[in-house]
Each structure stands twice: as structure tokens, then as C-alpha cells.
Amino acid sequence: MSTSFQVSRERAVALHRNGHVDQAISAYLELLKQQPDSADLLGLLGVAKEHGGAPEEAERLLRLSLQDRTTVPLAYRNLNNLLGLLIESGRQEEAKSAAEAYSPDVWPPGRVPDTVEHDIIVSLVSALKDVGLADLALAIGLPHLSTMGKDVEFAMSIADLLHAAGRDDDAFAVLDRDFGPGEELPNLHAVRAALAYKRNDLAACRQSSHRFAVSMPILLSESTSSQQFVLAVFNRSPELVTDFREPHNHHYSSNFPSQLVKAFADRFRFMSVLADSPTAVDALRGMPRPALALNNVVNAEQLMVEDTLQRVSAFEDSLGVKVINHPKLAVQATRQKNSDRFADIPGIVFPKVYRYHSDKDQRLALIEEIESRCGYPVIIRTVFQQMGVGTQLVGDRQSLREALDKLEGFQFYAITYLPTCQSDGKFRSLRAAFINKQPLIIRADYSDHWNVRARRNPQRQDFYRKNPHLLDKANRIVLDPEYELGSNLYDKIKIVAEIMPLEIFGVDFDLAEDGNLIIFETNATMNLLSTSPKELEYPPQIEKKLRQILEKFLISQIAR
User: What φ, ψ does residue 91 adopt, rounded to 5°?
Assistant: First the structure.
């Protein structure tokens, strides 16, 4: 390449870089007259055409440039630009096919990527990962770990690919280094925590999870023109980050506040605040002031640990705004307190709940006490877990002994079992949402198992596909519960609303043949919006009504 040609090329690139796209295109075309088959010039012209608003011509030129892949760094650049064009236009499968068709050779041994080439490699690995070519992404990325391993984004991408390939130890090694300024990246701590969890290193997982909460105590959603207010959601820091998910999922638990973030993204700008993070107070100083707050630190058992209630309450009160489901209300809704709360209410049956500590030295006395209080079968469940996790029904002394052995050293609940089997041999559970004392039946479900779960569970989905008549029956209850279950149903449910201290919560219950309301569980951690697949969803008109009630309540609280 002559000196004059090289100077002309650099001028053309400078024109392009400075935004003079039309002049750059003219310059590239003039140079192509001298070297019509230049993969370099064809690739540069292709990008200029894309920037000039001619994507079809850009794609043709980039594909043409990749006919010559003898210069590997140049092939990396051209392939990266082609994939970027295709991915941005939503043509993922075409991008995948192009990557497979134009796959470049291995990077030249001994050649250290310069700054531009470094960025190209990072981008290309990410693009290949996005289109589902993990093996190719690893083949291209891994050889550069020795020279590019301090780039935290690149290292995390490679670690993610290694994890997906089942190579967790290698993934952990990639991130087991000091990234300097990159150490402040919250995602780095989340990925380290998830890898440590996979390797069963709970101490390292807990440490990295804590560092995530410290580095990202606040997560503010994107701002849009349709959002009217900022709504803060106080969440609890994840004790253990166990999987590779976005920060949003580490901030929000699987309950209704996280559903509100998605359902009302166009009406509210949501700000998640990890109420127990030591850096949350300082981080709030640079954030917009919320018009309303929703407390999602609502697990009453966790609130009673040490001084959690006092610390969280003081922090939330410091904002000076209305807090829905305030911690001082949430702490009143433990299973034991609810059991006592509903103990003497006519027409309502709530299972007796007893709290114990599993101590091997007192095992026989503990078993005998549970037997005398609850009989068999009896429900044994952990104290802190939700959504049916850690729950089992035991039917005899041996099963109870085995259950308590597994819980050695932990607190647990023994709960009286209320037989609720229907006349057809199936079990039923209904769910009502309560918003500011206003109840709405939102779910009805049947099962051949005593612990009736929602429809997002694959086993539950199979059950309904085999029993479509029960799906239809359940949905009829949701559409018109008073017709299906009796005109006084809501009168009984409203008693629950008056007794419970929370402003937004859910109740799982059933109506017995004698007309009594049997309450299985009530708390502020339930999912209220549907989590079911489309073909098995609850009646959409009820979901719409629930959203309207929620939105109206939130707006009314802001107005106050």
C-alpha cells in the first residue's frame, strides 16, 4: 500500500469519524477504484452506508467484504459490523447464519489487540453470545483472556459463557482477580456470588451478595414521558445471589411489588431501595424524591430478627412520605399472630400454628407435644420461607421424626391440617386480593394434592390439560364467585379485611361445605397478578379490574 493511498484512507476515515458521512462515502468510493476488492474499504464503505441511511446496501457491502477473511483482525471487524446491523434490525436468525457462514480463523498468535481491536473482540463475543453461538464466542474470546482479562465486561461475558458450558470452576477463575475500577460494578459481585453458589461456597456467595447490595443499593427504572410520579419500593438485600440474572431480579422478590414494576411502568417511575444496605442512605441523596413508598420488607419473621424492625422502620420513615404496608404493620402478620387473630371469629376457621425449635436432645418430648396439639396429619414448614417452600404434610410419628431431623437446629412451624377435600376427591384453593380493605377474588384452583399451587407450576399446568372441566370450573368461580359459592361470600371475606393490619395483601382460602371460611394463609408476600401461561390464565377481565383498583389506590395515596 503506497504512502499516498494510506494518507487518503486515513483522511476518509477521519471524515467518517467526524460525522461527514457523505464525504467519507465519496472518498471510500474513490479509493475502491484503485483497490476494488479491498475487504478493508468494502467494510468501511458498508458502515458508512449504514450511517447514511442505506442499510440494504450496507449489508451487501459488508457481506462482500467477508469474502476475503485472510486478514483475521479485519475479518473480526467486518463480521462484528455485519452482526450489529442484523441484530439491531431484529434479524437474529440471519445474524446467526451469517456468523456461521463467515466465521473467521483464529487470531494470529503473539499479536496483542490494540485499543480498537480490543473493543471489536468484546463486541463480537457479545454478539455471538446474543445469537446463540456460545461455542464460537468462547473460541474467539478465550485466547484473549491473557491480554484482555482485566476488562471486567469482557471477563464477565466469558465467565457467563463458561458457566453455560458447565465449566463453573473455569468461570470462577476468570473473575477471581482484581479489576481495579471495575470492582465497583454491581453485576461483577452478582456473577461472582452466583458462581460461588454453584460451587457450594456459601461463604463466598454471601460475601459477594453483600458487596452487590453495597454497590447497588438503589435501582431506578428508566424515565418516560408518561410517568407521573416516582414510587419507591423498599426491598430486602438478597442474602444469597444464586443465579445469573439482571440486577432488577436481585432487587425485587417474586411477589406483587415486583409485578407492579412491570404492570405500571408507564404510570410510575419505580425506585427500588435496599432498605438494609449500609450505603442506601447516601445513595438516596442523588435520587429523585418519591411521591409514595411501598414497603416490601414484609416477611414478619425476618423483621423480628435482632433490630431489623427498628432499623428498617426508621430508614423508611426518613423519606417523609406515605409508606404502604409499613414494617410496623407487616410485623403484626406472622402466622402465629394471624392464627390468634382469627381464633374466635365466628364463621372463620384458621389452622392452629405453633412455633418450635428442632432440638435433638428434646426430640421425643417435642414429638409428643406436636401430636397432642395437632394430631396427624400435621403440616411442618420452615419459618422464613414462602410460596410453599419447606412445607410438608406428615402422617405418622416416624415421618415427623424424619422431618424434624432435617430441621435440626432450625425453627419451624407445626400447623394443624384442615381437611378440605371436595366431594369429587379434589382439593381447592381460592385467592383474594385486598387493596385498602376492598377484597377481590382473583384466583381459584383445583388439585389432586393437598397443597394447591398456582398455574405457573408445570405440574399444575399438566393437571389442567388433563382436567379442562376443572379449569373451566375454577375460572367460573373467579368470574362470579358469589353465584358459584354463595351470596354471602364477600360478607365473610370483608371480616378478614377489617382484622388484618395490612393495606395490600393476599389471602388463600376455601369455603367449607358447612359455610365456614377456611383460611390457609394470609400475608403481603403473595403474587396478586397472574403468573400463568396464556392458555391457562385466569379470566383477564378480573386481572384488568385488579390493576384498576391498585392504580386507583396508589394515586389516592399520593393525592393525600
Answer: -105, 65
Instruction: Cell numbers for 337, please give them.
Output: 399472630
User: For residue 209, what are the CA distances in angstroms to 229, 273, 276, 282?
Assistant: 30, 15, 13, 19
Gyration radius (Cα) of the chain, Å: 30
Parallel, antiparallel or unpaired: strands 411-416 and 391-394: unpaired
Those residues whose C-beta lies under 8 Å from the C-beta of residue 313, and which sit 6 or more positions away, are 326, 327, 328
Place of cell 432488577: 248
Q: Residues 143, 149, 154, 156: what is their CA dihedral angle, to the nearest 10 degrees?
A: 110
Predicted pLDDT of residue 9: 84
β-strand pairing of 504-511 with 517-523: antiparallel
Query: What gap in Å lies between CA 7 and CA 11, rounded to an integer?
Result: 6
The answer, yes or no, to whether residue 338 has pLDDT greater than 70, is yes
DSSP 140-192: HHGGGHHHHTT-HHHHHHHHHHHHHTT-HHHHHHHH-S--GGGGG-HHHHHHH
255 vs 244: CA distance, rounded Å: 19
User: Which helix H or strand E contains 495, and what residues bound it?
Assistant: helix 489-499
Q: Which three cell numbers stand for residue 132?
A: 446463540
DSSP state of 323: E
CB-neighbour burial class of residue 93 (10 A; exposed 0-12, middle 13-18, buried 19+): exposed
C-alpha cell at 409: 437446629
Kindly report the backbone phi and psi dihedral angles of residue 67, in degrees, each rounded to the nearest multiple of 5, phi listed first. -65, -25
For residues 80 and 76, what is the distance between their CA atoms, to the nearest angstrom? 6
CA distance 455 to 239: 28
Read off the pLDDT of residues 81-93 as tens digits, 9 standing for 90 and up.
999 998 998 999 9
pLDDT of residue 359: 86
Distance in angstroms (rounded) separating the CA atoms of residues 290 and 288? 6
Is residue 136 within 8 Å of residue 105, measured between CB atoms? Answer: no
Q: Quick check: 117 and 76 in contact, CB under 8 A?
A: yes
| pLDDT band at residue 1 using 50, 70 and 90 as cut-offs | low
State how far the Cα of 450 lies from the Cα of 351, in Å rounded to an integer.
14
Mean pLDDT of the chain: 90
> Is 280:316 a contact under the CB 8 Å cutoff?
no
Closest to 330 in 3D by CA, of 498, 494, 504: 504
Q: Which contacts (CB < 8 Å, 24+ apart) does range 21-30 have?
A: 21/48, 21/51, 21/52, 22/52, 24/48, 25/49, 25/52
| pLDDT tens string 132-185 | 999 999 999 999 988 988 899 999 999 999 998 989 999 999 999 999 988 989
What's the grid cell of residue 285? Answer: 441523596
Contact 358, 366 (CB under 8 A): yes
Q: Cis bond leading into 108, ω under 30°? A: no
CA pair distance 118, 248, nearest whole angstrom: 29
**Closest alpha carbon to 233 in 145, 305, 324:** 324
Give the type of residue at 339: S
User: ∠ CA(517), CA(522), CA(524), 5° rounding?
Assistant: 150
Give the residue from 153, 62, 154, 143 showing the smallest Cα distance to 105: 143
